[in-house]
Each structure stands twice: as structure tokens, then as C-alpha cells.
Amino acid sequence: CGAAPEFTGTQKWFNTPGGKPATIAGLKGKVILVDFWAYSCINCQRATPHLLAWDKAYKPLGLEIVGIHSPEFAFEKSAGNVESAIRKEGITYPVGQDNNLATWTEYRNQYWPAKYLVDAGGTVRAIKFGEGSYGQVEDQIRQLLKEANPAVQLPARVDGTVQADTIGAKGTTPETYLGYSRSTNL
């Protein structure tokens, strides 16, 4: 996959000391999960509980999650709206506001949500577009943590324990996309 691009063109940072930008260089030595999201994206909202669980379980062991808020709509460019969404979701990891999609473009991203796993040396090792496959992503996180520190004592996996795993259970309607234009590129 190659070297992880730096976070560029961000307008504001949340959950960082003094609001200073997080950097790939500054996080070298840690396993980094870069999460591209938008607060009004339902797929992103459904992924957030998994990110929060991974942050809680693996941050003490060397995982650093960095959210890159990449707006799809004009109202998502408001720093106040982004900050409100971060508080509402309980997000405590760093989040950069990428209103002009500069970091999004550097990563050649095209999807919400998108996760880029970066090893401790700064190389992108795995990419996951969309929601789902949380067990696979967690396995990749665990593998990269072990590579970074073979002596690390990993906790039990959190996959399957997240409340959001019940989506699709009885009483929950799956998301449906309607319309001719939704069939483009299929």
C-alpha cells in the first residue's frame, strides 16, 4: 500500500493538546487507524461503536485512532456541528476537520466510512471501505500491535461484544438504497 500520507489541509483539530494537528510522523511507533467519516453518514454512525471499543481496548497497547471528518454536505463543514457530533458520539480520539478533502485526496479515498491501518513504521498495511468486517479489522489491528511489540499482552477480542453488532436483528430495518441512479457502476 505504501507510506501513509500526512494529514494535510485540515481546518481544525479536536481532542488534541491545544488543538494542534496530529501527524503521521508524530505518531510513528504506534499502530494508527485513520478513519474517514462524516457525522451525518449513517454507515459512519454504525461504525463508531466499534472504533470506540477498539480505542478503549487497544490504545493503552499502542493503537492510535485518528478520525478525519470529511464532509459530504455543506452543513457538515461547520466546526460547531462537528464538535457537537464528536461529543454526542463520545469520541475522545483526535479528529481533524478536512473540509476541502485534502487529506481525503492524499489517501485517494472515495468512501464513507473508510479505515486505513498504518503499521508502527508508517506504512499503510490494510484498507477497509464501508461498514462491516469488524472482526477482520480487529484481527489486523491485533496483528500490527503484535508486530510492533511481540511481548504485548492483548486483551480478549471486542468484536461481537459491541452493541451495534445487533444491527439487522429482529426489529431493525436494514438500509435500502432506491432509485435508478443508485445502480450506476454496479
In short:
With 186 residues, the protein is α/β, with parallel strands linked by helices. It has four helices and six strands; from the N terminus they run E-E-H-E-H-E-H-E-E-H. It has one domain: Glutaredoxin (3-Layer(aba) Sandwich), CATH 3.40.30.
Tell me the series of helices and strands, N- to C-terminal.
EEHEHEHEEH
CATH class: Alpha Beta
Q: How large is the share of residues in beta strands?
A: 15-25%
Q: Can you name the CATH architecture?
A: 3-Layer(aba) Sandwich
CATH topology, by name, is Glutaredoxin
Cα(first) to Cα(last) distance is: 25 Å
The strand count comes to 6
Assign the structural class, choosing from mainly alpha, mainly beta, alpha/beta, alpha+beta, or little secondary structure.
alpha/beta
Overall spatial form:
globular
Total domain units: 1
Radius of gyration: 16 Å
Number of helical segments with 4 or more residues: 4
Q: CATH H level: which superfamily?
A: Glutaredoxin
The portion of residues assigned to helices is 25-40%
Overall pLDDT confidence = 92
InterPro entries: AhpC/TSA, Thioredoxin-like_sf, Thioredoxin_domain, Thioredoxin_ResA/DsbE_sf
Protein name: Redoxin domain-containing protein
GO molecular function: antioxidant activity; oxidoreductase activity
